[in-house]
Design brief:
Order of helices and strands: HHHHHHHEEHHHHHHHHHHHHHEEHHHH
Largest sheet: 2 strands, parallel
Shape: globular
Distance between the termini: 7 Å
Number of helices: 24
Structural class: mainly alpha
Radius of gyration: 24 Å
Number of domains: 2
Strand content: under 5%
Helix content: 55-70%
CATH architecture of the largest domain: Up-down Bundle
Length: 581
């Protein structure tokens, strides 16, 4: 009991809600969602996206918040308790979060570059009278049939100074590496005190972006060509729905945007009050997240319509790819606004807020998991948690350096393609398998009832038992069958790069089979006994047994360490009657 009370909690529950919204609502809402819409025929993407939200996103977010709040541990320990055989899912979520945070902060770096570049008039991407511009540049204020706008060239040739491909790595962009360092310093200063400091920061970072998005939308809809872009966004091309890639991308966007499979919200929920209303947070976070994505879609497609008007080409032919969407299309609208530099500063400061919220959560997964697993030994050598957070941030900073070289955009796109789609589909499948089938809907429902006083409704139990596992399995199979190699705009990566991409994808997924083999190896008994014990929620080692004796493991998740395997539901009464507090 004593150890339990030492775990920090949010000062106010609203801080968790805002932090969860900040975690879910990130740069992906204003970058990846519109980008996937654009590649998937505009409005056609909204149909699978909303279906995936209802059938997968909301139910699985409910699962992750419930498990994190009930076990009061990060994803590694939580999954080890839920299903020892698939404890590797917890390690995989930590791995994918750490991999993503190494390159996700690069987007914040670009936002900082634009933020500092916005303190001038005219804006540096407003005209073609600059040393970095190419002959095919067109001004943002005149119609032209040229192929490249001033904002596109500013991003490609000034910010990135990109090379022709991975065969020419170029040099380090020292301006960007300094800004990457600044970005990591901001992350560290925001989370080094744990949830106590993060809870204060999110009041601003989670709410401010909406003010800017609404202001931009009001401006953009008045631009010439804006309505063509909005029509492309809201009117479906129904033939696109025949493509399985559109459905896989919709599911992947739901997982990425809500953080399903990343362990971020599970880790943050572990600091909740035990009796917190999980369903309320689930609905607030998921609905706010999708509302933000759809709102950002209107903003971006109105700007794309304006770009198509400037270049005298169809909306579907605008050549923008990957993160360039947010750093090319959005800035295009600023010169049309009064006091353009002020709006540019506010917009890129908004991107900074959006990015930091999500970055907090990904770093917190790593820190929470390390503290849960090695608290005594780590604090013995590091003295306090602040030093551990510093080491995590420094490690991620060093791994992010390749992204701020001239070849960096190609490295970024390669990692994002294989991590954000392939890896996350595997993780989502095994997480659903572990919690919904092996741990079981019955146990999960009892846990929810113990915390909130109410069992989940029929919709959620049906989704957990049937719809989510089957749908995720189908999507996983087709994501592999229909897989398309990474590309950036018209650049095709060589085969060896695609091989590196698969290594990156497997860097997180590999922990699942490795940990499954380890679990079966260390358990006593025959293979059948070991297999049965490995899918029964319980502790596996002396430390777990000690924590159980201290009341750290909760009633429906306990089982005797060395007993003959018995289903948890039929354990002796004394093991299921402990109170939590």
């Amino acid at each position: 009991m004593e150890a339990e009370t030492k775990r920090p909690t949010w000062n106010k529950q609203i801080e968790f809600t805002l932090a969860a919204i900040g975690c879910a609502v990130g740069l992906g809402n204003v970058w990846r969602f519109p980008y996937l819409c654009y590649r998937s025929g505009g409005g056609a993407f909204l149909v699978p996206y909303l279906l995936m939200l209802v059938l997968l996103g909301i139910p699985l977010l409910y699962v992750e918040l419930s498990v994190g709040q009930y076990v009061r541990r990060g994803p590694v320990h939580a999954m080890a308790k839920v299903c020892p055989l698939l404890k590797g899912v917890g390690l995989a979520t930590v791995a994918i979060s750490f991999i993503m945070c190494t390159y996700y902060n690069v987007i914040i770096t670009w936002a900082l570059y634009y933020l500092f570049s916005s303190f001038q008039s005219p804006l540096p991407w407003e005209n073609c009278n600059n040393t970095w511009n190419r002959p095919n540049c067109t001004s943002s204020t005149t119609n032209s049939s040229f192929s490249s706008t001033a904002s596109q060239q500013f991003f490609n040739y000034k910010v990135l100074e990109r090379t022709a491909g991975v065969g020419d790595p170029g040099t380090i962009r020292w301006e960007l590496i300094l800004l990457l360092l600044v970005a990591w310093i901001l992350v560290y200063l925001s989370i080094f005190k744990g949830v106590k400091s993060t809870g204060k920061v999110v009041y601003f970072t989670a709410l401010f972006p909406y003010v800017i998005l609404v202001a931009l939308l009001i401006n953009n809809v008045q631009l010439p060509g804006a309505m063509k872009g909005i029509e492309f966004y809201i009117i479906p091309e129904w033939d696109k729905l025949k493509s399985l890639e559109v459905w896989v991308n919709a599911a992947a966007q739901i997982f990425n945007s809500l953080g399903i499979g990343f362990g971020s919200l599970m880790a943050m929920a572990s600091y909740n009050d035990f009796h917190n209303s999980i369903l309320k947070d689930t609905l607030v976070v998921s609905i706010t997240n999708s509302f933000t994505s759809i709102l950002a879609g209107f903003v971006i497609f109105s700007a794309i319509g304006y770009m198509s008007h400037l270049q005298s080409i169809a909306v579907s032919d605008i050549a923008v790819d990957g993160p360039g969407l947010v750093f090319v299309v959005y800035p295009q609208a600023f010169p049309t606004m009064s006091v353009a530099p002020l709006w540019a500063v506010l917009f890129f400061f908004m991107l900074l807020c959006l990015g930091l919220d999500s970055q907090f959560a990904m770093v917190e997964v790593m820190v929470t998991s390390l503290v849960d697993a090695y608290s005594a030994s780590l604090l013995k050598y590091l003295k306090n948690k602040e030093i551990l957070i510093l080491i995590v941030c420094c490690s991620a900073f060093l791994l992010g350096i390749p992204h701020v070289m001239q070849v960096g955009i190609y490295v970024f796109q390669l990692m994002d393609h294989y991590t954000a789609i392939i890896s996350i589909m595997f993780l989502a499948f095994f997480e659903v398998l572990a919690i919904c089938w092996l741990y079981g809907v019955k146990r999960l429902s009892e846990n929810v009832e113990e915390m909130t006083g109410k069992k989940p409704g029929t919709f959620f139990t049906v989704c957990w038992a049937v719809i989510c596992p089957v749908l995720v399995a189908v999507l996983l199979v087709f994501s592999v069958i229909q897989f398309k190699p990474a590309r950036y705009e018209t650049y095709q990566y060589p085969a060896w790069c695609q091989g590196i991409g698969w290594v990156i994808a497997m860097a997180s997924v590999i922990w699942i089979p490795l940990c499954a083999l380890h679990t079966l190896w260390v358990l006593p008994g025959t293979f059948t006994q070991r297999l049965w014990k490995s899918i029964t929620p319980c502790g596996l080692d002396e430390k777990s047994a000690f924590l159980e004796s201290q009341g750290e493991v909760f009633p429906n998740m306990k089982c005797p360490l060395n007993a003959v395997m018995t289903p948890v539901t039929s354990l002796p009464a004394q093991t299921t009657s402990q109170t939590r507090f």
